[in-house]
């Protein structure tokens, strides 16, 4: 068995390739130096541990002895985990998208020894097909060109690098001011892509992209758009009923390959489930329907059961594949199900889940696909009490049987960025749903992050911890997402210590990443010498951008603390991106949520009293119980704004609703507080 340098890495993705015949290097000076010394091009392969097509390309090409030998002779091969180094991925993904019109993972790029790209793509098959060369043919062609026309390739790479600098610079452009009409127009553009049958915004393949329905819901609140509310709630219901939602174990897969949300790409990502938990909390507050709260609970319970380190950190992802087959862990045949259940249970479950002998899914990526596989989705809800009882019994048995299957591979690294997203979801769910276990999980998670990834001396937050070791990579996403999570934990508890840490994070983030000249936040700090470019992420896709989350979190923190130095960077960032916000709103749904908060001074809900008092907790939960995305909840102690500190409890816990320095008379009645919140919305 081969063993290469990746055996010494902590990334589960890199470790998956530790026994390839390819002489892989990690992204570090050792590989760069070898490329320079031997004057060889670099083959850079970027992916992540739960990436299905990354597994396919490894099996077909990187485990192949002849392909490995050719790579070792003609290239310096480098592997990067995109989740650990999104800053590296961003640069080379931008190149591939600009030169080919599309992107994805595995990302395959060829670089000069100076790390400048000259050719790239995504997955390359082992055999020529559909007019595309095989991976081996591509390697031979590039090796020949490098041998015979090296100077031309280097010159082309220099030219492409200059173009890449222009693409990523994104200087501010002249644009009209950001107004409520900016939000209205954005919502109308997004609504035009609504699927009235299956829900969602856009065509297959369908990614949940929770930031888009969340933005539509915010705009609906601002403009009283009941049609938009129905679109979002329908989308939530359709996703929850679809195969993209794990009907037995909770949690959502990354996306559906079809328009109906039926057949997922089965990998489960922490960032998706964090954002979807937030979206379904919004849906619950808007609709009042228990089914939306149930989705939140199932999602967070899945994370606590299957995705949480004993110390409190949240793991990154679960694979799509098990035993070499995509979806094998999740799917069922009709014959198998009939053996597990009684006849009565089977009849109800088969109707409910739409089970057929033919199935609805074939794993085409495997040489020997399994037949008759059914992805579970809700086809026909159980009606009678008897049917519901039988369905519950069937689900219990199915869950027990599934629990004995070989689980998909777990990516057990703990990322500060994604943990920040889930921290916020746990904290908010705790107070909205009155679930103490979610608050305990949020508090434990923050202790874990502060112990393992936060360096108080240097005021820096590392991106990854795994197996007792953290990296030293500094990223905007880490700081911004964790800041947002900690601010939400503060709003859920009003504990001054959490607000104090949020302030530390915000100050560190601004110091390390903010561009005081042009506005916006860099993805990496100055002096990150393994990058050929310093870029600003300005795209909210499956994950929100660091700029969008930083803007929203800083606006909240500015309103809580009264610190203008937290608000000013947001203003400059919005000015930098104003033209893009107006011309491509769907690309910045997260930033438009920050625009919504920035346009008007937020309503401040000040809860005064002792946090361990029962009445205080009732009022705090009531403050969170009304959907009003532009309200800020704070206490009257700790480093809050000066005016809030002057508002006393009288004589027990009370709530003040304030705008500027004007407040409505305080109340200690839950019903009255909800009424006031509805009126001021």
CATH architecture of the largest domain: Alpha/alpha barrel
Q: Nearest-angstrom radius of gyration?
A: 26 Å
User: Helix/strand-derived class?
Assistant: alpha+beta
What order do the strands of the largest sheet run in, or round the barrel if closed? 2-1-3-4
Q: Give the DSSP E fraction (strand runs of 2 or more residues).
A: 5-15%
**Count of helical regions:** 24
The average pLDDT score comes to 95
CATH topology of the largest domain: Glycosyltransferase
Number of domains: 4
Q: CATH class of the largest domain, please?
A: Mainly Alpha
Level of helix content? 40-55%
| Unreliable residue stretches | none
Sheet with the most strands, sense and barrel status: 4 strands, mixed
Task: Tell the overall outline.
Answer: globular
Straight-line distance between termini: 65 Å
Number of strands: 20
């Amino acid at each position: 068995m081969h063993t290469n340098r990746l055996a010494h890495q902590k990334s589960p993705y890199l470790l998956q390739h530790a026994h390839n015949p390819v002489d892989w290097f990690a992204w570090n000076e050792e590989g760069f130096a070898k490329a320079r010394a031997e004057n060889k091009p670099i083959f850079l392969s970027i992916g992540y541990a739960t990436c299905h097509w990354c597994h396919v390309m490894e099996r077909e090409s990187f485990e192949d002895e002849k392909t490995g030998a050719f790579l070792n002779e003609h290239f310096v091969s480098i592997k990067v985990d995109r989740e650990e180094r999104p800053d590296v991925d961003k640069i080379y993904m931008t190149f591939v998208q600009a030169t080919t019109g599309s992107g994805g993972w595995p990302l395959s790029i060829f670089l000069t020894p100076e790390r400048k790209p000259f050719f790239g793509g995504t997955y390359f098959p082992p055999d020529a097909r559909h007019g595309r060369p095989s991976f081996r043919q591509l390697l031979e062609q590039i090796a020949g060109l490098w041998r015979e026309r090296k100077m031309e390739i280097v010159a082309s790479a220099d030219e492409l690098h200059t173009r890449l600098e222009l693409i990523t610079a994104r200087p501010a452009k002249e644009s009209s001011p950001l107004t409520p009409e900016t939000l209205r127009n954005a919502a109308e553009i997004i609504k035009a892509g609504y699927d009235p049958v299956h829900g969602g915004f856009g065509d297959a393949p369908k990614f949940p992209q929770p930031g888009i329905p969340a933005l539509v819901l915010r705009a609906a609140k601002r403009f009283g758009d009941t049609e938009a509310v129905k679109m979002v709630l329908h989308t939530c219901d359709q996703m929850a009923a679809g195969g993209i939602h794990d009907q037995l174990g909770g949690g959502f897969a990354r996306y559906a390959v079809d328009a109906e949300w039926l057949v997922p790409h089965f990998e489960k990502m922490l960032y998706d489930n964090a954002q979807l938990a937030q979206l379904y909390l919004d849906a619950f507050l808007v609709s009042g329907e228990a089914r939306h709260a149930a989705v939140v609970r199932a999602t967070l319970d899945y994370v606590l059961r299957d995705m949480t380190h004993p110390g409190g950190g949240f793991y990154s992802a679960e694979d799509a594949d098990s035993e070499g087959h995509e979806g094998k862990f999740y799917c069922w045949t009709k014959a198998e199900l009939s053996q597990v259940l009684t006849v009565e249970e089977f009849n109800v479950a088969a109707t409910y889940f739409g089970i057929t002998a033919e199935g609805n899914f074939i794993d085409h990526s495997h040489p020997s696909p399994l037949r008759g596989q059914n992805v579970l989705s809700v086809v026909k809800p159980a009606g009678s009490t008897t049917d519901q009882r039988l369905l519950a019994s069937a689900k219990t048995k199915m869950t027990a049987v599934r629990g004995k299957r070989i689980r998909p591979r777990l990516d057990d690294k703990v990322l500060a960025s994604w943990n920040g997203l889930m921290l916020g979801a746990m904290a908010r769910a705790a107070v909205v749903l009155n679930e103490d276990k979610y608050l305990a999980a949020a508090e434990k998670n923050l202790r874990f992050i502060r112990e393992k990834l936060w360096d108080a001396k240097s005021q820096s937050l590392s991106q990854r911890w795994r197996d007792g070791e953290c990296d030293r990579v500094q990223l905007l996403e880490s700081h911004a997402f964790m800041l947002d999570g900690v601010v939400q934990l503060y709003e859920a508890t009003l504990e001054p210590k959490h607000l104090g840490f949020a302030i530390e994070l915000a100050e560190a983030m601004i110091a390390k990443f903010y561009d005081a000249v042009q506005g916006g936040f860099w993805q990496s700090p100055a002096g990150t010498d393994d990058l050929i470019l310093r870029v600003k992420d300005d795209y909210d896709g499956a994950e929100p951008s660091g700029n969008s989350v930083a803007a929203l979190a800083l606006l909240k923190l500015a309103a809580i603390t009264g610190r203008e130095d937290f608000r000013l960077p947001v203003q400059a960032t919005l000015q930098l991106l104003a033209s893009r916000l107006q011309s491509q709103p769907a690309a910045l749904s997260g930033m438009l949520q920050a625009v919504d908060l920035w346009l008007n001074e937020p309503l401040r809900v000040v809860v005064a009293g002792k946090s361990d008092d029962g009445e205080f907790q009732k009022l705090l939960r009531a403050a969170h119980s009304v959907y009003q995305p532009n309200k800020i909840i704070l206490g009257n102690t700790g480093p809050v704004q000066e005016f809030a500190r002057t508002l006393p409890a009288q004589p027990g816990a009370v709530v003040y609703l304030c705008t500027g320095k004007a407040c409505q008379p305080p109340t200690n009645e839950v019903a009255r507080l909800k009424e006031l919140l509805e009126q001021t919305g």
